Structure prediction request, 135 residues.
Amino acid sequence: MAFSGPAPRPDAGLLLLRLGVGAILLFHGLYKVTHGVAWIAGPLGGAGLPAWLMYGVYVGEILAPVLLILGLWTRLAALVIAFDMFMAIFLARRGDIGKINPMGGGWAIELEALLLIGALALALAGGGRFGLSKR
Prediction:
């Protein structure tokens, strides 16, 4: 007889993923609330985009993570976060895509990539039953 381990708990796993992605990104958003987002106008302008788009960071790094943590509109919030991470990589980190982090190894954009992948996983799977969304 093979040992199969404890029964899978996909809803608990999705809750953990929601809380992890949401909390990590929320810290980045809170930093931007206290230190401003004016610096984002430079990379936006360099990409030919209008400076007012910098305020979208508050949606992607404050509102969407809070919704993710609460389990409200999880799939939409996760898509917003995925777009935010794509833009962060494109605007600020694209030069690092092929680099290794000199401080201990690892991919230079591993945090952004992991948040992007986690958000995409939540957008595909949903947030599970442990949240405030009505089913």
